[in-house]
Specification:
Layout: H1 4-21, H2 31-47, H3 49-59, H4 64-93, H5 95-107, H6 112-115, H7 117-126, H8 133-144, H9 147-155, H10 159-174, H11 177-197, H12 215-218, H13 231-260, H14 266-294, H15 297-317, H16 321-333, H17 337-348, H18 354-382, H19 393-398, H20 401-420, H21 427-443, E1 449-451, E2 457-459, H22 460-481
Antiparallel strand pairs: 1-2
């Protein structure tokens, strides 16, 4: 048996070896290092938006939506379970090594997309254990920026999603899907090289700890157990659960739904993503600032939930492209909900509960990332919304290439017309609208925040604290007099 002190020294030495084995990088750590890392990763996957859809449909032609939900559901649950552990160890070993790990495991399935689709989807699910690049990048940004500039830094991360799908669709049309997959692989490798040689470590040695990590710190359900202990925390978590569950499910299948059920072309999907992304950036900057300033966080949350309800309902009943574009604009406007929830928590939660409540909100969202896709896939399966009629296998193999593409278009139009005959084309989206409606009702129970004459809002908790202080001063004064 190795003595405890010796084990601690060996562990500490191993940590220092790991820290010194990586190149120091160039310059001081900044938000731009994290921005480039997340931009390249999202750019690589954004290029593959359409190849992923076609590979999914070819691999699971009969139950595409169900399998899509299962794959992303398993990935989301694994991410929920592993993210506290990886976050805790990044406080010990630093951010750079975990950026390498998360980017590698997130992007390693890309080359297998055409080589072995089954292994590709298996790796997609398993990669959820390490697919926490966003969390590590957030920690990296938090290490090098102040609190006021973080929200602006986080808003820039959506830029890669605006451009890459359109570029991928254009390159696939000029060359082939295999070329786009190879390019996505090259971008992922470039991201790893950038992290290894260029990105400096953001966590100073003095802030790292070699202490033993306790189970309470890495237990993903630890924060969730405390939800019922406080009415305010319970309300916030219920609102997040009911609103983010359909949003997570929507993200997992929406582009597949556009392409295979509504007949969107590859270019239309790319333009749709760019449209929603640009309007989301505007909504999360200009619109969010105006709503927060003149109405308050609670009212902004309610506005975002209202837009989400209308958007999901439109997705569920839409049978024409213009309705989907209109709903996409509403989806961009609804993106103000979660920044408003974070702002509301930072104002209303008690000072000693800020980390607890924010941790619970993130924990509920992580749980929804696993449950949402599985729920949407199951509802699609329950209502028998599948793609059996999308493309005839015999037709695909017997006709020439040009005629084959024509036949695919004909089959897609036939499937689209058959979809129009359904009473409810997208049942999971209508169910999501119902959940968001319940979330809006719970939002009415939150404390009010009212604007002052100068346009800023004063939360009810501030008034309550002032009243409590006045009562304490009055009691102490009476006690002195007696």
């Amino acid at each position: 048996m190795i003595p405890t002190k010796t084990r601690r020294r060996l562990t500490s030495a191993t940590h220092h070896m790991n820290r010194r084995s990586l190149p120091p990088g160039f310059g001081k750590p900044s938000v731009y290092h994290g921005l480039v890392v997340i931009f390249l990763e999202f750019f690589a996957w954004g290029l593959l938006t359409n190849p992923v859809i076609s590979t999914l449909n070819k691999t699971f032609p009969t139950h595409t939506f169900l399998m899509n939900g299962v794959i992303h559901g398993v990935k989301g649950l694994l991410t929920f379970l592993s993210s506290p552990l990886l976050g805790a160890y990044s406080d010990v070993w630093g951010r750079k090594s975990f950026l390498l790990i998360t980017v590698f495991f997130t992007c390693c399935p890309i080359p297998l997309m055409k080589i072995s689709p089954m292994w590709y989807f298996a790796l997609i699910s398993i990669s959820g254990l390490f697919s926490v690049t966003f969390s590590v990048v957030y920690s990296y940004v938090a290490d090098v920026t102040d609190e006021n500039s973080r929200s602006a830094a986080y808003a820039t991360f959506a830029a890669s999603l605006i451009t890459s799908p359109a570029i991928g669709a254009h390159l696939a049309r000029l060359y082939s899907e295999n070329f786009v997959i190879a390019l996505g692989t090259a971008v992922a490798i470039l991201d790893l090289i950038f992290i290894f040689f260029v990105v400096p470590e953001s966590l100073p040695e003095r802030l790292r700890t070699d202490q033993k990590i306790s189970w309470d710190k890495i237990d993903p359900f630890a924060a969730l157990r405390n939800i019922t202990h406080d009415r305010f925390i319970c309300l916030i978590c219920l609102i997040v659960l009911l609103s983010y569950l359909p949003e997570a499910g929507q993200y997992s299948c929406f582009f597949v739904y556009l392409r295979l059920m509504l007949g969107f072309s590859e270019d239309e999907i790319a333009y749709f993503i760019a449209f929603v992304g640009i309007f989301s950036c505007i909504a999360q900057t200009a619109l969010l600032a105006c709503l927060q300033r003149y109405f308050g966080s609670k009212e902004t949350i309610m506005v975002g939930l209202f837009f989400q309800i209308v958007q999901l309902a439109a997705y569920g009943i839409a049978t024409s492209n213009w309705v989907m574009w209109f709903a996409g604009g509403l989806a961009a406007l609804s993106s103000v909900t979660y920044p408003s929830i974070s702002a509301f928590v930072s104002v209303y939660a008690k000072d000693n509960q800020q980390g607890l409540v924010q941790g619970m909100v993130n924990g509920v969202r992580g749980l929804c990332n696993g449950l949402g896709p599985a729920l949407f896939g199951f509802i699609f399966y329950l209502f028998d919304v599948n793609l059996n009629e999308s493309v005839s296998p015999t037709l695909s193999t017997t006709m020439p290439t040009r005629l084959n593409h024509t036949s695919i278009r004909v089959m897609e139009k036939q499937m689209y017309l058959s979809m129009l005959t359904r009473d409810v084309p997208g049942p999971p989206f209508l169910f999501g609208a119902l959940l968001a409606t319940v979330a809006l009702m719970f939002c009415l129970l939150l404390p009010n925040s009212k604007p002052e004459s100068n346009g800023l809002y004063v939360d009810a908790r501030i008034i309550e604290q002032k009243a409590r202080l006045l009562n304490l001063e009055s009691d102490s004064h009476d006690h002195v007099l007696t």
